[in-house]
Write a structure and sequence with these properties.
Number of strands: 12
Largest sheet: 8 strands, parallel, barrel
Strand content: 15-25%
Number of helices: 11
Structural class: alpha/beta
Distance between the termini: 35 Å
Shape: globular
Bound molecules: NADP nicotinamide-adenine-dinucleotide phosphate
Length: 305
């Protein structure tokens, strides 16, 4: 496993993080096994959101942590807030109330990181600043980030914040590459040139903002995994060949492809299967060559201009 210092907390966190969005399907025993397996593989970063399982995922995880011998300081816990039923809400009151709910469900006195889950079109920077200041002063949140924001939204928000935005959690997999495509196709008439993020990856790289990739195995918007999918046969052939070369499973190659991008990258995996967690952890142990990275990108159906 590889580690890096995360934001203001200066805690060394693993480049593979375990997303807990699908944890509500598990029994307490299974939760214990998932948490234990992740830590045994060197994964010390756990991603939550107040909405996952309607709050059930945070509760299950918190209870699992309390049943275990694991010390709070040995795990990095991140959660997200601001998605409400029919709206996104960055108001001071809503952020403060949400974090209290998150902390009580997780059964912890602080979050290592809080992300604003989806951009609120009605965002007022001073409200966010007031909420973050209070949460930080009270020791409830150690660092702050965003999710699904483009470069300009981050710049706008940052202009009103005294805290650095340390992470942007974005959808990215070999089968979902609009963030990469717009850079490769810049100023051409090809579809890939359509700017959907305004140079967000380059911005994160410039500012040292951690890119946390969500749904790293999914095609489309939660349309299933591309591994073994006949629609992605060429991609799967290359994944299988490289998996053999590096003595790992194809999923590890798919994660290694994300880690190869030269921004500060962190892959947020969503599997709840201990075997798959073990396989994912191996992605941090090898580095794809430039040729292999581009070969996978092309095998996923992308053309270079
Ligand atoms: N910020 C946002 O807006 C946002 C949105 C969505 C998700 N997220 C975060 O991102 C995390 C990951 O998202 P995700 O769950 O969609 O990601 P994912 O890792 O792409 O998908 C996980 C799913 O793929 C299945 N899968 C099938 N074969 C697999 C294999 N060989 N290895 C691993 N998994 C395999 C898993 O099943 P098994 O469990 O059986 O392995 C699981 O159902 C979430 O937990 C959440 O923390 C953030």
């Amino acid at each position: 496993m590889k580690y890096f210092d995360f934001g203001c907390t200066k805690k060394a966190v693993s480049v593979i993080g375990l997303g807990c969005m699908r944890m509500d399907d598990l029994s307490p025993n299974q939760v214990d096994k998932v948490i234990r397996t992740a830590l045994d593989c060197g994964i010390n970063f756990f991603d939550h959101a107040d909405i996952y399982g309607g709050g059930e995922c945070e509760k299950l995880f918190g209870a699992g942590l309390r049943r275990s011998e694991i010390k709070r300081e040995d795990v990095f816990i991140q959660s997200k807030c601001c998605i409400r039923d029919g709206l996104y809400d960055f108001s001071r009151e809503y952020i403060l109330k949400s974090v209290d709910g998150v902390l009580s469900r997780l059964g912890t006195d602080h979050l290592d990181s809080l992300l604003l889950h989806r951009p609120d079109a009605l965002m007022e920077m001073d409200e966010v600043q007031e909420a973050f200041s209070k949460l930080n002063a009270e020791g409830k949140v150690l660092s702050f980030g965003v999710s699904n924001m483009n470069r300009f939204q981050m710049e706008l928000l940052q202009s009103g914040l005294s805290f650095p935005i340390v992470a942007d959690q974005l959808q990215m997999s070999i089968a979902h590459t609009p963030l990469i495509d717009e850079g490769i196709n810049v100023n051409t008439m090809f579809n890939g040139a359509v700017t959907r993020s305004s140079g967000t990856l380059e911005y994160c790289r410039l500012k040292g903002i951690v890119v946390q990739t969500w749904s790293p195995l999914q095609k489309g918007f939660f349309e299933g995994v591309f591994l073994g999918d006949p629609e992605y046969s060429e991609l799967n052939q290359v994944l299988d060949r490289l998996a053999d070369k590096y003595s790992v499973k194809p999923d590890a190659v798919a994660y290694a492809w994300l880690l190869r991008y030269p921004a500060p990258m962190q892959v947020i995996i969503g599997t709840m299967n201990p075997k798959h967690i073990e396989s994912a952890a191996k992605a941090a142990d090898f580095t794809l060559s430039r040729e292999e990275w581009y070969e996978l990108y092309r095998a996923a159906g992308n053309e270079l201009p």
